[in-house]
Amino acid sequence: MGADGLRVAIATAAEAQGLDDDEPLLVEAFARHGVAAEPAVWDADVAWSRYDAVVVRSTWDYPARRAEFLAWAADVDGRLWNGPRVLAWNTDKVYLRELAAAGVPVVPTTWIEPDATGVTLPADGDYVVKPSVSAGSKDTVRYRAGEDVDAVEHVRLIQKSGRVTMVQPYVASVDSYGETALLYVEGSFSHAIRKGPLLTAGQGFVDGLFAAEEITARRPSPAEREVADRVVTAARQIVGDLLYARVDLVAGDDGQPLLLELELAEPSMFFGYDDGAADRLAAAVLARLG
């Protein structure tokens, strides 16, 4: 037992055990605060009531069973962070529509509903096709202009699964500048990293839980901070307080930051790239517990 008998569960997936670099760092951070923390598989037979808090982390298998995952979150509500309302909103990327309506600059997106018959694809340049419910770049493919037959087949597979399809232009700056991921704890900026390009034209679908990433520490630009702050503020206005958040930005053709994704469910937090990052999250959990 930890200080004052507090116990914290770090929710993970069975397939993710041993793959989350953040997990041991967070366990160690809680230990420094005198609290016992341990990983627990979200869909296993776990007595969640014995924990004072459950922090959602590497539940990377949820897309295939999203309804089951959200039902679990609702059952654990009261001690779960981020909470079920946040998870329900953020595990379907149609949330980008709301953020765009709130004035956030978002990567241009064409949305194709599951029952749509027509499919319009970009005539020029590379583009990305992906489902609105996915994680770790699963079912996400970069196509070249003219590869419409394969892209349409991809769209039909997504539609058959009952998910909305997203079609976005491939942002060319990613190949050189990469993505900037800004991490937040309780709405305050914590640290940032650079993610190298993930998608190569012609590579096809990702195997496994997630695509391998090239990560380095990064100091975000003032423009990136400003946009990321706006994203987090807008999200908090829509779904309430956020224990943690990750804002993934890319540079548009004009060099200005665009929101690619806002990760509020199970984002990697990249604790190993900033001293004190794991401790900030652990301290925030303890502050919530009073």
Can you walk me through this structure?
With 290 residues, the chain is α+β, with helices and mostly antiparallel strands. The chain folds into three domains: 3-85, Rossmann fold (3-Layer(aba) Sandwich); 95-105 and 174-270, ATP-grasp fold, B domain (D-amino Acid Aminotransferase, Chain A, domain 1, 2-Layer Sandwich), CATH 3.30.470; 110-169, Dna Ligase, domain 1 (2-Layer Sandwich), CATH 3.30.1490. Helices cover 28% and strands 23% of the residues. The protein contains seven helices and 13 strands. The protein has helices at residues 22-32, 66-76, 84-90, 95-101, 148-160, 222-239, 277-289, and strands spanning 7-12, 36-41, 53-56, 80-81, 110-112, 127-131, 141-143, 165-169, 179-185, 188-195, 215-217, 244-251, 257-263. The protein has a five-stranded antiparallel beta sheet with strand order 11-10-9-12-13. It has a four-stranded parallel beta sheet with strand order 2-1-3-4, covered by helices on one side. A hairpin with a 2-residue loop joins strand 9 (179-185) and strand 10. Helix 1 crosses helix 7 (277-289) and helix 2 packs antiparallel against helix 3 (84-90). The longest helix is centred in the C-terminal third of the chain and has 18 residues, at 222-239. The two termini are 17 Å apart. The model has no long low-confidence stretch (mean pLDDT 94).
